[in-house]
From TrEMBL:
Protein name, per record: Phosphoribosyltransferase
Pfam families, sorted: Pribosyltran
Domain Phosphoribosyltransferase as annotated: residue spans: 9-156
Keywords, comma-separated and alphabetical: Glycosyltransferase, Transferase
Annotated organism of origin: Mucilaginibacter pankratovii
InterPro entries for the chain: PRTase-like, PRTase_dom, PyrR_bifunctional
Coiled coil: none
């Protein structure tokens, strides 16, 4: 990583953003008995785990963590999931990633659920960069950040020996 990096969110601010998103999800789903939180590996899953931990404390409904591993460089949808897709039928799915940049990762994440009738599908990102190539909007974002294309948003979560943070590089 280059030497020049600007701290955007520290670990306390990251947790505050996740807490706020959890309350928004609670408000949107207060009448549900269960929601499924699908984290996109690797960092989206870290955000999803933290979101689930907060929801487990504050929500009357249960939540279950699912993981999705996407081959992001592929030109077609190729995903590995840790659940049977039929388990999602008529459920609320919350699809989670760390950064929304072009929208390709979330679009591929949507693709996992295309053949299943869902109650609703919501998206969560910690940082929305506002550089979408795909016509996507996220339902819940920790923060929106206007950047230039050359800049990179680096999310550090659960890395041994490093403080959780979001950097603009």
């Amino acid at each position: 990583m280059p030497d020049k990096k600007l701290l955007i969110l520290n670990s306390t601010q990251i947790q505050q953003k996740i807490d706020r998103i959890a309350y928004q999800i609670l408000e949107d789903n207060f009448d549900e008995t269960e929601i499924l939180i699908a984290g996109i590996l690797p960092r989206g899953n870290h955000v999803a785990k933290r979101l689930k931990a907060v929801l487990d404390k504050i929500a009357p409904f249960s939540s279950r963590l699912l993981t999705i591993e996407l081959e992001k460089d592929s030109t077609s949808l190729s995903a590995h999931i840790n659940f049977e897709i039929e388990e999602c039928s008529n459920k609320v799915i919350v699809l989670v990633d760390d950064v929304l940049n072009s929208g390709k990762t979330l679009a591929y994440g949507f693709g996992v659920f295309l053949d299943v009738p869902l109650k609703k599908l919501r998206t969560v990102v910690l940082v929305d960069r506002n550089h979408k190539s795909f016509p996507l909007a996220t339902d819940y974002a920790g923060m929106a950040l206007s950047t230039v294309i050359k800049e990179h948003v680096s999310v550090v979560l659960d890395v041994e020996g490093e403080e959780d943070a979001v950097y603009l590089v």
